[in-house]
Amino acid sequence: WEDVWFFPEHPKRNGVKGYMGTQNILFLSINPSTGGGVFPDKFCKWYYEQLKKNGFANAHLTDVFKQRAKKWENLDKDKKLKNEAKNFLRKEIDIIRPKLIVYVGKGKKYKKLYDEVLGNRNVEKIIITHYAFRYGSDQKLRAQIRKEIRRVKVKYKNI
């Protein structure tokens, strides 16, 4: 697992399917982490636990860019990589046919990239805080993310 390019299935983490998930909800992040270097790190373990607790063990987890990079903005600047990312992601969406896409990571730059690569897909979207938080109190941020994932659960059930 030292060189994961996709969210792997993690049977030891309550059976979360990761990239192999086929539920019609897609959790979309920017790119694979370079932090920690080994899957699962403490952030991924916690994230997978929250997904399982909320009924998303079979959700499709993916990234816009499949390449690792310390700064995703460097991937975003490469037109060839960006077009490749758009094509792969759109094919994933065609296969999964999600009724809800969850943008993982808040901020104007994140939302702009997510919206751009998805194009004019007519799919409901919701934004949550990224699980690999860098700043602030672990307890406070984890409580916020738990609340946001529960909000995703409610929205998903009501679509």
Description:
This protein is an alpha/beta fold and 159 residues long. Helix content is 42%, strand content 12%. The protein is built from 5 helices and 4 strands; from the N terminus they run E-H-E-H-H-E-H-E-H. The chain has helices spanning 42-53, 72-77, 79-96, 108-118, 138-157; strands spanning 25-29, 60-63, 100-104, 124-128. The protein has a 4-stranded parallel beta sheet with strand order 2-1-3-4, with helices on both faces. Strand 1 (25-29), helix 1 and strand 2 (60-63) form a beta-alpha-beta unit. It is globular, with a radius of gyration of 15 Å. 27% of the residues are buried. The model has no long low-confidence stretch (mean pLDDT 86).
Helix and strand pattern: EHEHHEHEH
The termini sit apart by 35 Å
Report the sheet-strand fraction: 5-15%
What fraction, in percent, of the residue positions are helical?
Answer: 40-55%
* Rounded average pLDDT: 86
What is the strand tally? 4
Estimated radius of gyration: 15 Å
Strand order of the largest sheet: 2-1-3-4
Choose one word for the global shape: globular
Low-confidence stretches: none
Count of alpha and pi helical runs: 5
Main beta-sheet strand count, sense and barrel state: 4 strands, parallel
